[in-house]
Amino acid sequence: MTSADGGRQSVKSLFKMLEVLEAFSSSDPELSVVEIARRTSLPRTTVHRIVDSLRSVGFLEQDASRDRYRLGLKLFELGGNALMNLPLYREAPPFVDTLAKLSGEDVHLCIFDGAQMVFVNRRNQVARPHNTVITMEASPCHSTGVGKAALAFQGEAVIERVIRAGLARFTPNTIVEPKRLKAELAAIRARGYSIDDCEHEPELRCVGAPIRNSAGRVFAAISASGPSRRVTPERVPELARAVMTHAELLSIRLGYEPSSQKPGAGFSGKHAGLDDEARHPSSETKTPAEWTIKS
Fold first, then answer.
1. Domains of the chain: which residue ranges?
2. Which residues cross the membrane (predicted)?
3. What is the mean pLDDT of residues 113-131?
């Protein structure tokens, strides 16, 4: 075998290892070798060998019964390091703080991991004990403001994958029909922001907007949320202006160039109604689809 052949074989082995790790999910946290083989279409002997290797380095853990596996804490450690080293993690705090101050509402910043939204930063109006522990808390895409803001700008294959994973109902307002969710995502792309109309938590309304990287790809989202009695349908357009502006300014800080944006790309391009601090941070009842910003 030549060195080139050896290199190709190593790459194939790495892809197989990744397939095994991706077989696990939040809905199926523990799997047997047989289940992994069935999900990956890999031979059982191959899965046995890969599982043993992943367990030896801490990427998988074996339960007491010895026949089921789960993702190991080593992955959590690496994930925490990856999160803290993201430019988004370093650059976001001033924007999150300013949006929270300007809106007077809770602000959440999440990154899209391909299936759900993982919290990166948050500011709550009700003071809570300071906690520096990384919990990797995640939220669904179909029922939250940040989730729909990010999902709306993904490819059709990604949207279909999220739908196939299941659209769980959290409140009477949760969108659980695929056709209706796709229509909602199209409306979000058209207006540039998402609305969680008490869909994830009762009596909690949220407005979200997408965040782009230097290549213009939507990979995260930011939102402002509050009690529905305070975040009324009439207030949604005003709040959306603030959220979209902060999303755009943070995207620019990350290297995004708005001049390259295409129609319906998710930003209004206007900073009307925002004070100088918001533009430059230091370091009748309508249905959601009908809420639009009036210039």
1. 3-72, 86-290
2. none
3. 75
- pLDDT of 154 above 90: yes
Longest distance between any two alpha carbons in the chain, whole Å: 73
Which tokens in the block code for residue 124?
């709550």
Angle between helices 236-253 and 93-103 (to 10 degrees): 160
Q: Which CATH class is domain 86-290?
A: alpha beta
Q: Tell me what pLDDT residue 79 has.
A: 74
Structure tokens at 264: 């319906």
pLDDT at 295: 39
- Among 210, 218, 213, smallest CA distance to 246 is for 210
What are the pLDDT digits (tens) for 167-204? 999 999 999 999 999 999 999 999 999 999 999 999 99
The predicted pLDDT at position 82 comes to: 72
pTM across the whole model: 0.71
DSSP secondary structure letters along 120-159: EEEE-SS-----------EE-SSSSHHHHHHHTTS-HHHH
The residue among 238, 263, 240, 260 whose CA lies nearest residue 251 is 260
Fold classification of 3-72 is Arc Repressor Mutant, subunit A (1.10.10)
CB 278 within 8 A of CB 102: yes
Task: Give the residue ranges of DSSP H helices in the chain.
Answer: 3-22, 33-40, 44-56, 73-84, 87-91, 93-103, 145-151, 156-164, 178-191, 236-253, 276-279
Beta-sheet strands, E only, within 164-217: 194-197, 204-212
